[in-house]
Amino acid sequence: MAYALYQIIVILLDVLWWIIIVQAIMSWLIAFNVVNLSNDIVRTVMVALDRMTAPIYNPIRRVLPDLGALDLSPMVVLLGILIIRQAILPPLFGLV
């Protein structure tokens, strides 16, 4: 039972990892005018990604210093996911 819970948590963290990666790539594509927010599909995807990640980013953005256009909160979240997956979860579930 514990291993099944461990696997579910790992899968959810992997999904969150890929959501953050896709959002970063989409924001770069928008910033460099490869895709345009006037496209309904692009706007819908970006709004959905923003709604999924904003609750995670907002507390981190309050703590991090303002660096202008550079947003480091996705990097901090990805680092946190990596630490949780490799350093916290295995000992917690006795998989070391």
Protein model, in words:
The model has no long low-confidence stretch (mean pLDDT 93). It is built from 3 helices and no strands. The protein has helices at 2-31, 40-63, 73-92. It has one domain (1-93). It is globular, with a radius of gyration of 16 Å. The protein is mostly helical and 96 residues long. Helix 1 crosses helix 2 (40-63).
Task: Please render the helix and strand layout as text.
Elements: H1 2-31, H2 40-63, H3 73-92
Helix pairs in contact: 1-2, 1-3, 2-3
The H-and-E topology, N to C, reads as HHH
Oligomer: single chain
The count of helical stretches stands at 3
Low-confidence stretches: none
**Domains (count):** 1
The portion of residues assigned to helices is over 70%
Strand content: under 5%
Q: What best-fitting shape do the alpha-carbon axes yield? A: globular
Quote the distance from N terminus to C terminus.
17 Å
Mean pLDDT: 93
Largest sheet: none
Radius of gyration: 16 Å
Helix/strand-derived class? Answer: mainly alpha
The beta-strand count equals 0
Report a brief summary of the structure.
By secondary structure, the chain is mostly helical. The chain has helices spanning 2-31, 40-63, 73-92.
Fill in the keyword field for this structure:
CCB3/YggT, single chain, 3 helices, mainly alpha, transmembrane helix, 77% helix, transmembrane, globular, 96 residues
